[in-house]
Amino acid sequence: MDVAFRTSLRLKTAVRSPVSSCRLWSPRVWSSRVWSTGVWSPGVWSPRVWSPRVRSPCRRLHGGPPPRRPFSRLSSEDLAFFRETLPGGTVTDPDLLEASNVDWLKSVRGHSELMLRPQTTAQVSDILRYCHGRSLAVSPQGGNTGLVGGGVPVYDEIILSTALMDQVLGFDQVSGILTCQAGCVLESLSRYLEDRDFIMPLDLGSKGSCHVGGNVATNAGGLRLLRYGSLRGTVLGLEVVLADGRVLDCLATLRKDNTGYDLKQLFIGSEGTLGVITAVSVLCPRKPSAVNVAFLGCETFDQLLGTFRLSKRMLGEILSAFEFLDAACMGLLNTHLKLPNPISDCPFYVLVETSGSDAAHDEEKLHRFLEEAMTSSLVTDGTVATEDAKVKALWSLRERVTEALTHDGFTYKYDVSLPVERIYQLVTAMRTHLGGRARSVVGYGHVGDGNLHLNVTSPARDPALLAAIEPFVYEWTAGCRGSVSAEHGLGLKKRNFIYYSKPRAAVGLMGDIKTLLDPKGILNPYKTLPDDLL
Amino acid sequence: MDVAFRTSLRLKTAVRSPVSSCRLWSPRVWSSRVWSTGVWSPGVWSPRVWSPRVRSPCRRLHGGPPPRRPFSRLSSEDLAFFRETLPGGTVTDPDLLEASNVDWLKSVRGHSELMLRPQTTAQVSDILRYCHGRSLAVSPQGGNTGLVGGGVPVYDEIILSTALMDQVLGFDQVSGILTCQAGCVLESLSRYLEDRDFIMPLDLGSKGSCHVGGNVATNAGGLRLLRYGSLRGTVLGLEVVLADGRVLDCLATLRKDNTGYDLKQLFIGSEGTLGVITAVSVLCPRKPSAVNVAFLGCETFDQLLGTFRLSKRMLGEILSAFEFLDAACMGLLNTHLKLPNPISDCPFYVLVETSGSDAAHDEEKLHRFLEEAMTSSLVTDGTVATEDAKVKALWSLRERVTEALTHDGFTYKYDVSLPVERIYQLVTAMRTHLGGRARSVVGYGHVGDGNLHLNVTSPARDPALLAAIEPFVYEWTAGCRGSVSAEHGLGLKKRNFIYYSKPRAAVGLMGDIKTLLDPKGILNPYKTLPDDLL
Fold first, then answer.
1. Contact A502 B313 (CB under 8 A)
2. Is B295 helix (H, G, I), strand (E, B) or coil?
3. Is the distance from CB of A301 to CB of A389 less than 8 angstroms?
4. Which of these, A331, A457, B73, B532, is most buried using a 10 Å CB contact count?
5. Are B411 and B466 in contact (CB under 8 A)?
């Protein structure tokens, strides 16, 4: 069964404008926004022209990328090889390259002069075998929706795009196992599955653009993890091309397989640094026949936690999401996106979703839960939706916080895992710590997963503010044995903060594995692993 | 919170007798039963005495273990070191060692002359650092309940038992995350959690003996995988001691953590060949407040599959198990264990379990499902249980098939994953293929996971019968892109069959990882990886 998808531009048009047509971003504005979590600025913005010579960043300071490693420079012979190997699949036009050289937060940019768009695994293999032989660095790219600068080149790495690898390879209606190429857009897969009465086990705000291969490469979490678990459990097989072009076929479609080490796990969450994922098989749940969403207000975070515990007890197996945002987030939604608050003003808001197979049963459970939550004063106000449009409207309050933040100024973004009881303490601690120095300090995220998105905004890039936030935020997180990157990964921006969450012995072993699989270090260099390792 | 567990002997007493007290097993009988899937016999059975010299197997044929590798022999100085390091934790008495030298199927045996029983991770580290320096081979052992000879020594490897590492280290009531030492017995953990209104995400027939560290090291599947997914998703953290004694602390208690490569996945399912798991953190589901079990009969396997599809649709989120056994299994339960069939005779039986948070809702869903299954003639007879004792009695029909088989003669055991539509075709194909040569050819297993347990019995070990079964069973499985070991692992017995399920490139990479983590190969040698690799 072969089905071609066209990349959806929903997110691109709704949330971000293509960089090449972004008139608002002058070089001055640009340089003030680049490199949101460091203090490195890449210097002036200038038009790119094809040339085997590649710019280096003008200056490097703490937090910026390490020096360019001694990879080969792209030659005209290289280009001739790629044009022959990939007819119609090489992009060298600087305008076309621009959107792939810059991440969607517009916080980091590279200077690649070549993007390759293979359609088959064999082509990916040919590309990597050649690059390995020539010591040419490669930056794999899916939908370019990452938040840590992991999906764009840092210098002149060749961009290896999965955009044209968008075929569904098969779907088993009995087992619910989908097999597809890595470049399938998540939302397209969701639509494909919904027609067959199934859903993807993950859902993300960037679903309109992100590729499933990128989701797997970054071990994306998202909105359904509470119910369906992580990709480490739901991804059943991967096909991966290694740095030297060898194809590793672990594309099993079995729920159980204990024949040797589970190699695919190495590539899940390794951010393209160990291999390029070319195909994925994933276990998909049946589409729930009933979905309800309640949007509730709580006076304190303790009451919010009480509501969470109550939901786990009373909603049990039908609880599919428990998300939260604080009053500051609601303020940004009102101000910047004109989204009205559907309930009365509260310090905290939660979005509770149920998904089940029997509408009457689910509504009864939800009703009893809400009654108990109101009676016991855990919740002060709320609204419930069962119709699709209203469900989507309530979800957009949670999903569009990221977008609202982009309108609030320069944003310092943090994505941490903490023991669930402590997730909001970090927001409070940060507010106290920063005093009046920030414009906004807001918290939202996935309560059910203990995953806080902490965001700090200011009118413009502010090194003094950054110095006040970091390492405070990482030390605070490490003090709770939390993770400094719950679901966004480390990419370029956070690679050197790995030691806050992983001991040196573990990081050293990661380096050994990188060396084993990619001895020349050509795959997504400068990402994931810290500078002192390589 | 520290709670000590005493190892439960339920399984040991119910299913197997300790070898040292097993009067029925004369040397002649023993040698005829050893090595169930190969044709190697270890020669005569003789009492073991302490000596630095170790016996070699008398002869090796296809399928037997490879020659002993040139590890050091245990010296009196070594023994003195271990006695000093582990006061009271060294076992050299041959009678006490006996039960740990032999697997519970009594199909393979080693000749270790030393078992070490550490209580702490530091002690495990001291042991491995010493063994690494001295090139002494080590066989890690949990509850010794494995089915592929992975948990017992092959020659004179030192047995490193986790039996005294049985402490619960912590439990978070809000998140349901349990942290414990590797030697905790699964059933003890289940009892600990049930008192707190939670359950373990896995359940196995061997729960009374198996250790959670062994469960993780073998990526055990079992009876709850359909509902709660694999250990790759539910295990959140591991503490592992590497071959050279380094302690790798990946004992996170977070649902999400994307800081670098997920090293713990390397050790899940690697059968103790890459490191010794010393502690585990695992995400535990809430205890369902309502459990129902239906035991149903079907006329054909197609009807059984139709019943499965119907259950997924109508029971949805409360379906927690869908197991099957065939009429031949029921015959063995009747004959050898005197367990009566609770319904009328049918060619196929299924056990459907629901687990939910609302008894009335669940019963209504189950009732509607059963009505539809009967009306549409998918099911011909059935019985339902909600009381705990009756639920257990129905489950025992499924769980005790393994035990019944041990009374039916010499058993050739296979554990394969296949596309769910094809799982019973293999049983039928095997019956046709073997004609009258086997005593019984039976099939049972986890329909929901596409996991068939195929067992062939004969009055005694029968090399001609084995030659008829293998490689037929593996070739048939490989022809469906199935797995030759769904959940049992490869251990000693199946290591050379890995190529039926994994390509050479993947197996080669497994070998590279083994060399990286255990360059001297001291950890559980002769297991998991094929002989041609090392």
1. no
2. strand
3. no
4. A457
5. no
